[in-house]
Design brief:
Layout lengths: L3 E4 L4 E4 L9 E4 L4 E6 L6 E3 L6 E3 L14 E6 L2 E3 L12 E7 L2 E8 L2 E8 L6 E10 L5 E14 L1 H4 L3 H7 L2 E4 L2 E4 L9 E7 L5 E5 H5 L9 H5 L12 E11 L4 E12 L6 E3 L2 E2 L2 H9 L3 H19 L2 E4 L3 H21 L14 E2 H11 L4 H12 L11 E2 L17 H16 L8 E4 L2 E7 H10 L47 E2 H20 L3 H20 L10 E2 L5 E2 L9 E2 H9 L8 H12 L1 E2 L2 E2 L2 E2 L25 E2 L3 H10 L3 H11 L1 H4 L3 H4 L7 E4 L10 E4 L4 H13 L2 E4 L2 E4 L9 E8 L2 E8 L10 E4 L2 E3 L3 E3 L6 E7 L1
Parallel strand pairs: 40-44
Antiparallel strand pairs: 1-2, 2-9, 3-4, 4-5, 6-13, 7-8, 7-13, 9-10, 10-11, 11-12, 12-19, 13-18, 14-15, 15-16, 16-19, 17-18, 20-21, 22-39, 23-24, 25-26, 27-28, 28-29, 30-33, 31-32, 34-35, 35-36, 37-38, 38-43, 39-40, 41-42, 41-44
Helix pairs in contact: 7-8, 7-20, 8-9, 8-10, 8-20, 9-10, 10-11, 10-12, 12-13, 12-14, 14-15, 14-16, 16-17, 16-20, 17-20
The chain binds beta-D-glucopyranose and 1-deoxynojirimycin.
1-deoxynojirimycin binds next to helix 8.
Length: about 800
């Protein structure tokens, strides 16, 4: 069952019922100002950091679900409704919500009155614009009251949700005609305030929540709206809100538009005040002036659309399969931008109060983002590397605003260092910009400890010189990619953090997954050494990699698949000798992606085992059989009921690893089958089962051992976005950046007979036409570049070629 449809020409998903199984959200903003917006107008806004600079309040875990957002109450002839249906939930005569790239449009109607709301964050500015248009489609005049509503957050979202003894006293606002300034804490240490304005004369305003809603009432039926008259109350403490009342008289056929702006303003310290406790509003006035007509708002909207058209033009696919095209050309890349911006901080499942940017998460997000805006990727790499410690380990997370590591989680996740190599290597392969390696980058955010980025990568790799266990495999530390495999944790006390309990280091517990990473990213590091004249170092690195390869194919091989790990007692995890958790997905994917066991036939065996033991109709589960009881020696993984999350859920992030691994051994049909199983566009028809957005990947789909098999959770912020895009664009479609140029080596299902990929790469535009009339799954028989035949699959890079015509025959 579906709740809407894709509109590919507009690059939108059109939701046609407000009662989706879960709130289906979109992200506005792709620079510094961000908003989450659901298909009923719910969500919140923040500047740069969802924890520290939150503009509007959102209540997670609320009943009813998703109740707080930017709302417009329309009161027409005694009936009050919202264009997004919430919060009044008045039945609408028609409703649609179009989630587009960086914008959302509601189009609804009730009793011959049509409303549309276009919500977006303009490029280059720190505000959310809501353009509201009302049109009288009836045959008599209408006198309409409009009430807008937002609820301010007192900036620090954690305090805001907990420190009420203070918070209920600090709230302050200032008012001008048609403008509300939220200035809580501005009198003390903040140099920023929020501005909320509308470009038309208002009949009144409200700024105090309780006055607006009425005692013991909720946004579903505010007293002020019921009475039809704003109170003009100036908030003092309690909970400041922003609400305007507007009055419109519309003749039949007549329409009116208003532009509402919610903005973030920062003043230089010396320019904070206009007079005693009167804030300096100059920048706010300028901002409101930029959007004070519908024409200006429309121009900004058009600029946003052009921005996205241009970005997405960097990789486009034309082929018969619509679903594949819409994922490759639109939604997967879009989600890569969102994950790049948000890491794992703010979604409807990540409260924006916990994790900031994750070291491993953001490093992997780069893989799917780097082709879009390489300069931003460069900056991110430097930020991430700055949180590395001198021994090569790293802070696991950092706050986007301060860009410094989070002490409370600290370090000790031993996969982290290698992901830095992954991200940097992807950046250089994309751009050819080796100069990044010379960039001076602090350790532990201390400038005095700065060393060239190359030294950071070196220490990432060499970290394992002193971090190998009894089987010569890499030590796991607190955890590797699967941060629920806590082999040094041994937690038996409720509420203890699995992430930080126990020693971060143990001399014994080893990860075969990290060993696979060591081989893959060790080789990529060696490539960088060779390209920068460090040939001796490259040799040393390859020798260490070869030793690890050996350890993986011996101690790390279980006979039919790769072992997952060795625990703190050196017992295998993910082995046939285990009672539960005999086979795990991660080492099968990572080791084969690293090329381990391909020649020896182990790779194919491992992937066949995955198919036999882990595959389901909705995707590949993380492990089998699931843990039925809590294992002290394994940690959080065994805390989840069977089938959920890391305990045998379909953890979408690692499905593309298996798909890529299949391309390594040339099985295009299987690679594509795996790709499709978790791909939103292909599962749109089962939205009632899947329940999450059909245009974005979710972190997890409940596995076959769960009661709700097939139900997705944790949509949007997942490394799945970057890895599925890497998989489909570079490995299945096969257009892959290399340090020396562009590789064209598709591994596709035999049903794709023809395709054209347009790839912008280092200033050239490659138009790659692939002819697969032969119905092959892998292998280029012949390739011509601008008419000249070349050997192999690598198109060597030459600058300033303009458009390059590539013809590849499989
Ligand atoms: C989740 C993991 C997540 C971790 C982060 C765990 O509870 O299961 O998926 O990465 O928390 O803190
Ligand atoms: C989600 C986390 O964000 C990520 O860092 C981790 O790798 C996966 N969960 C797997 O546990």
């Amino acid at each position: 069952m579906k709740y809407g449809h894709f509109d590919d020409s507009k690059k939108e998903y059109v939701i046609t019922s407000p009662k989706t199984p879960l709130p289906w959200i979109n992200y506005l903003g792709c620079e510094s100002f961000f908003s989450l917006i659901s298909n009923t107008g719910g969500g919140y806004s923040f500047y740069k950091d969802a924890k520290l600079l939150r503009l509007t309040r959102y209540r997670y875990n609320n009943v009813p679900y998703d109740n707080n957002g930017r709302y417009f109450y329309i009161k027409d002839n005694g009936v009050t409704w919202n264009p997004g249906w919430q919060p009044t939930q008045t039945e609408l005569d028609s409703y649609s919500c179009r989630h587009g790239l960086g914008y959302t449009i509601f189009e609804s109607s009730k009793n011959d009155l049509a409303a549309s709301v276009t919500a977006f964050v303009p490029i280059g500015d720190n505000c959310e614009i809501n353009k509201l248009t009302l049109k009288n489609n009836g045959s008599s005049d209408k006198n309409i009251d409009i009430f807008s509503y937002i609820e301010f957050c007192l900036w620090n979202a954690v305090d805001d949700a907990s420190n009420f003894q203070r918070n209920l006293n600090t709230g302050e606002v200032e008012i001008e005609p048609g403008v509300i300034y939220h200035k809580t804490e501005y009198r003390e240490r903040r140099n920023h305030y929020a501005v909320y304005g509308v470009n038309a004369p208002v009949a009144g305003f409200d700024t105090d929540r309780e006055t607006f809603l009425g005692a013991y009432r909720s946004p579903s039926d505010p007293e002020v709206v019921e009475k039809g008259a704003a109170t003009n109350k100036v908030a003092s403490g309690w909970s400041p809100i922003g609400s305007f009342q507007l009055k419109a008289t519309l003749k039949p056929g007549e329409e009116v538009s208003y532009v509402f702006v919610l903005g973030y303003i920062e003043n230089p310290k010396e320019e904070k005040w206009e007079a005693l406790n009167v804030i300096n509003k100059k920048r706010a006035h300028e901002m409101l002036e930029r959007y004070n007509t519908t024409e200006k708002a429309d121009v900004a909207f058009k600029a946003l659309c052009d921005y996205w058209t241009n970005l997405l033009g960097k990789y486009t696919l034309e082929t018969e399969d619509d679903k594949l095209c819409r994922m490759v050309n639109i939604w997967n890349q879009y989600q890569c931008m969102v994950t790049f911006n948000m890491s794992r901080s703010a979604s409807y499942y990540e409260s924006g109060m916990g994790r900031g940017m994750g070291f491993r998460d953001s490093s992997q997000d780069l893989l799917g983002f780097v082709h879009l805006i390489p300069d931003k990727a460069r900056e991110r790499i430097i930020d991430i590397a700055s949180t590395q410690f001198e021994d090569g380990s790293a802070y696991h997370q950092y706050q986007p605003l301060t860009k410094t590591g989070n002490m409370d989680i600290g370090s000790g996740f031993n996969d982290d260092p290698l992901w830095l190599i992954a991200g940097t290597s992807a950046y250089i392969r994309e751009t050819g910009d080796f100069s990044i390696l010379d960039e001076m980058v602090p350790f532990d955010n201390k400038v005095e400890l700065a060393k060239p980025l190359m030294e950071h990568l070196r220490r990432s790799f060499n970290f394992f010189d002193n971090a190998k266990g009894p089987h010569k495999l890499t030590l796991i530390g607190r955890a590797d990619w699967n941060d629920c495999l806590n082999l040094n944790c041994f937690s038996d006390t409720p509420g203890e953090s699995f992430q930080t309990t126990g020693p971060s280091e143990g001399p014994v517990a080893e990860s075969v997954f990290i060993a696979g990473m060591y081989v893959k990213y060790g080789n990529e590091y060696a490539d960088l050494c060779e390209h920068t004249g460090l040939n001796d170092e490259a040799k040393e690195v390859r020798a260490k990699v070869a030793e690890m390869y050996k350890a993986v194919t011996t101690a790390g091989w279980d006979g039919e698949w790769f072992v997952r790990a060795y625990d703190a007692n050196s017992n295998p995890v993910g082995s046939k000798v285990c009672e539960e958790g005999q086979i795990f997905i991660e080492p099968q994917g990572m080791c084969v992606m690293a090329g381990i066991g391909v020649e020896e036939g182990l790779a194919q065996k491992a992937l066949d085992s995955v198919k036999e033991r882990l595959d389901t109709k909705y995707g590949i589960v993380l492990l089998q059989p699931p843990y039925q009881r809590y294992h002290l020696e394994l940690g959080e993984i065994s805390s989840y009921p069977p089938g959920y999350k890391e305990n045998a859920g379909i953890f979408c992030h690692n499905n593309p690893w298996i798909s890529i691994a299949e391309t390594v051994i040339g099985r295009g049909n299987r690679a594509f089958e795996i790709y499709k199983k978790t791909c939103p566009a292909y599962t749109e028809d089962i939205s009632d089962i899947h329940r999450a957005e059909p245009y974005a990947y979710a972190q997890m789909i409940a596995g076959k051992d769960a009661a709700n098999f097939g139900e997705a959770k944790n949509s949007w912020l997942t490394g799945t976005a970057a890895w599925t895009f890497t998989n489909v664009s570079q490995h299945i479609l096969g257009v892959r950046p290399h340090l020396d140029g562009l590789i064209v080596d598709p591994c596709i299902p035999d049903t794709i007979k023809e395709m054209t990929i347009t790839r912008h790469f280092r200033g050239n535009i490659y138009k790659i036409h692939v002819n697969n009339a032969a119905g092959s799954q892998k292998g280029i028989k012949k390739m011509t570049v601008n008419g000249k035949e070349i050997e192999g699959t690598l198109i060597p890079f030459e600058a300033n070629q303009g458009t390059v015509e590539v013809e590849a025959v499989m």
